[in-house]
Design a protein that fits this description.
It is a single chain. The chain is an alpha/beta fold. The protein folds into 2 domains: 78 residues, ACP-like (Non-ribosomal Peptide Synthetase Peptidyl Carrier Protein, Chain A, Orthogonal Bundle), CATH 1.10.1200.10; 212 residues, Glycerol-3-phosphate (1)-acyltransferase (3-Layer(aba) Sandwich). The chain has a 7-stranded mixed sheet, sandwiched between helices.
């Protein structure tokens, strides 16, 4: 079987029957065939297994079926690669980095009023995957602040973050403090997911937003399957988390968060649910349970 036939067969197995009827070499993976970030991960893993290769980190330039075939046939895939080595992340934290993180956690509690519930659901003897809804750029900082430095080893935390954070010194500093693993959201998420698996196996606790990106209107978006896949692959529990108030403080159109208002500090409510074990669930089942639990924490009916 040729490379083209193999790849067409792999793609056909991953997409729904309706899309598979019209697949051509010019079909766009995302727009025409409905291959989202989770299916892209599965696609890359299957191609690596079939062809006994390692796909380069950056497939952001891959849009069509033909592009994917050309990549597999190429002797020099590095031209599609990223400007960083994913294995370097999360970047090592110095004592200064940890001290800076603790400072920002303390400062957060001074500037905003934290209302925290369910923190007893956070294990102190094992690692876990935190899955909060995504309201602001400061969500990761505020979730760890709610847990508090006394319940977690800040040297062993990491999160998935868009690779654009590498482009500015300020956001890169935050990436180091919070253990950021850069994600190529427009292309192949496989390297970041693989790196997260290795971190979990090394004892790290991981924070990942199942929505994939921040809400633009304050409403929770449909969860994607990446966090469930991560939990299943590592057999580590997911902790559902609901954040309320972060969008009001730091909506997308603001360059800086709100701090002062008449009547007191702005409130941030963060609720932690009970751990959800993978226990032979499918990605779809676990994702559905996770979203339901996060919605319950937010008071959704």
């Amino acid at each position: 079987m040729s490379v083209e036939e193999n790849i067409l067969q792999i793609i056909t197995m991953l997409i729904d029957d309706e899309n598979s009827k019209n697949i051509t070499l010019e079909s766009r993976l995302k727009n025409d065939l409905g291959i989202d970030s989770l299916k892209m991960l599965e696609l890359c893993v299957e191609i690596e297994n079939v062809f006994n290769i390692t796909i380069n980190e950056g497939v952001g330039g891959i849009e069509t079926v033909q592009d994917l075939i050309d990549l597999v046939l190429s002797d020099n895939c590095s031209r599609l690669g990223l400007s960083y080595n994913i294995e370097d992340y999360p970047l090592p934290k110095t004592k200064k980095d940890v001290k800076r993180l603790k400072k920002y956690m303390w400062l957060s509690k001074m500037l905003w009023r934290f209302e925290v519930s369910g923190v007893e659901n956070i294990p102190t003897d094992k690692n876990y995957i935190l899955c909060p809804n995504h309201q602001s750029h400061f969500d990761s900082l505020w979730v760890w602040t709610a847990i508090s430095k006394n319940r977690v080893n800040l040297d062993k935390i990491c999160c998935l973050a868009k690779q654009e954070h590498l482009q500015s010194k300020k956001s890169k500093t935050g990436l180091v403090m919070l253990g950021g693993i850069p994600v190529d959201r427009s292309g192949n998420t496989t390297p970041a997911m693989k790196r997260a698996i290795h971190c979990i196996q090394d004892g790290y606790s991981v924070l990942i937003h199942p929505e994939g990106t921040r809400t633009l209107d304050g409403k929770m978006q449909k969860f994607k399957g990446g966090s469930a896949k991560l939990a299943i692959d590592t057999d580590v529990a997911i902790i559902p988390v609901f954040i309320d108030g972060a969008w009001d403080i730091f909506p997308p159109h603001r360059k800086m968060p709100k701090i002062f208002r008449f009547g007191g500090r702005y409130p941030i409510k963060i609720s932690f649910g009970k751990p959800i074990q993978p226990n032979n669930k499918t990605v779809e089942e676990l994702t559905s349970i996770l979203q339901s639990e996060v919605e319950k924490l937010g008071g959704a009916t």
